[in-house]
């Protein structure tokens, strides 16, 4: 307790505070009694001294020196027996005690010093007992929530009600799990929180400032800032077990300053929340490992039993009545992330949010996609009806990929996305679709200023050409078909190869080709004339045109594989 608590408990018994009112907030740890000034050697900081004053009666200077020494030691205060040896303290002594903020109380004549000591320890015992009972009550409140099936959300609500202040719970990465009245955005001050895609996270950099020798802080961190012209203190308490952090409890003292019982409530809540986090983490990890192992073996083609695939597939959401296309999403190029740990955390969160977005978009299309995270990739399995032909399946999955790409780029500025899609297969052969999607994704990386949603079939000609394995023959074909046009583009900084490619893609339709190239029709005519001159062709011979198209494909293939600097 502090001196004020002790004085208040004695007031009704006739004890009077004579001086030192400004020192009432001092902590009071124990009681000591003395009748000899030599006893000062054994007085400790925080002790309240009781005396009859015999050794300093009728000596004002000794009284002044005595209270000065007590103040230096850090004593909590002094109680002097009334009308025993000192009838009255002088104004000088009382003024000195006031200046030193050293409380002096007058002990009524009918009470002995041991009576006062007993009163203190009785009051302390009752306070500790009350605190202990309240602590048990709070613990029981929290335990009842868990026993009745509640979780961290309900625990947060209860804690907020008990301490009458906004409460926020985050996981170990700073992501918010639950909150109670922590809705005012002004509470999310920039020194403590970072806004990531319109969601707030506790700053890891702030926590790291309080870490010593790579050990996380185990005590509460106090941070004070000004909100709406008023000073507000934030208490950040790590949820720590041994050396593992499971999250943080953050309290904003906006309604009132926290008292001792509030800290007890936070400690009790912390223990229960930590156990809940440990339990949930263990469950999630077990489920994650089982699910991950199944999908790892599935996409690597290690499961050969159709019965096993059907039973495990049904458990994890795959339906044997459908074929599945594998869609691989890679997110990259985060900008302005100052902290590597934070970047990893943000990317992890972004992948999880992207999976939720995929699930939302797929439900609107009345399909049930399954998504997993594997390293830097999101792998999504898109169901298609077995009755659908390959063209229908391809068009559907590519369109779905474009929906995901557009929504992603809308949500996240400063990030790139690549989506490779494989063909649709039965579940037992889904590893083929995975390899095709990976191959499509690799090709996207080597392309510049081209589509970022690509199906494996878009490059079937490259796979066919590449399957020959005769690189020299491909180079010869390229040299005899399109090389002159490539060299002309390089020397004159033109883009005739792209013009010719768009012309073929638009099947010779001049208007469509001009529109695709964002140029005037007359400009296109001029470029085509130049192409005809360089390649010595009229672009009307079907066989010659096929050779030129194959030459462009070979140029791309050689460039992808870095077999020729073209």
Describe the secondary-structure layout.
Blueprint (H helix, E strand, L loop, with lengths): L2 H9 L4 E4 L10 E4 L13 E5 L8 H14 L3 E5 L9 H9 L4 E4 L5 H35 L4 H12 L3 E4 L5 E5 L12 E4 L2 E4 L1 H5 L12 E7 L2 E12 L2 E9 L7 H40 L6 H10 L6 E11 L7 H25 L5 E5 L2 E9 L4 H22 L4 E6 L8 H17 L6 E3 L4 H7 L4 H11 L1 H10 L3 H10 L4 H8 L3 H15 L6 H19 L6
Parallel strand pairs: 2-3, 3-4, 4-5, 16-17
Antiparallel strand pairs: 1-5, 6-7, 6-12, 8-9, 10-11, 11-12, 13-15, 13-16, 14-15
Helix pairs in contact: 2-3, 4-5, 4-7, 5-7, 9-10, 12-18, 13-18, 15-16, 16-17
Salient structural properties:
566 residues, alpha+beta, Udp-n-acetylmuramoylalanyl-d-glutamate--2,6- Diaminopimelate Ligase, Chain: A, domain 1, Beta-Lactamase, Alpha-Beta Plaits, 4 domains, 5-stranded antiparallel β-sheet, 18 helices, 17 strands, 49% helix, 18% strand, PucR family transcriptional regulator, PucR_C-HTH_dom, CdaR_GGDEF, CdaR-like_regulators
* CATH fold annotation of the largest domain: Alpha-Beta Plaits
CATH architecture of the largest domain: 2-Layer Sandwich
Q: Which shape, going by the Cα principal axes?
A: elongated
Task: Give average pLDDT, whole number.
Answer: 84
Tell me roughly what share of residues is in helical segments: 40-55%
Q: How many strand segments?
A: 17
Instruction: Determine the strand fraction and express it as a percent band.
Output: 15-25%
- CA-CA gap between termini: 82 Å
The Rg value, from CA coordinates, equals: 39 Å
Q: Helix/strand/pairing class, anyone?
A: alpha+beta
The biggest sheet, with number of strands, parallel, antiparallel or mixed sense and barrel status, is: 5 strands, mixed
Strand arrangement, major sheet: 1-5-4-3-2
Multimeric state of these chains? single chain
Number of domains: 4
Regions with little confidence, pLDDT below 50 for 5+ residues: none
CATH class assignment of the largest domain: Alpha Beta
Full CATH superfamily name of the largest domain: Reverse transcriptase/Diguanylate cyclase domain
Pfam family, one: PucR
Domain PucR C-terminal helix-turn-helix: 496-553
InterPro entries: CdaR-like_regulators, CdaR_GGDEF, GAF-like_dom_sf, Homeodomain-like_sf, PucR_C-HTH_dom, PucR_C-HTH_sf, PucR_dom
Organism: Clostridium malenominatum
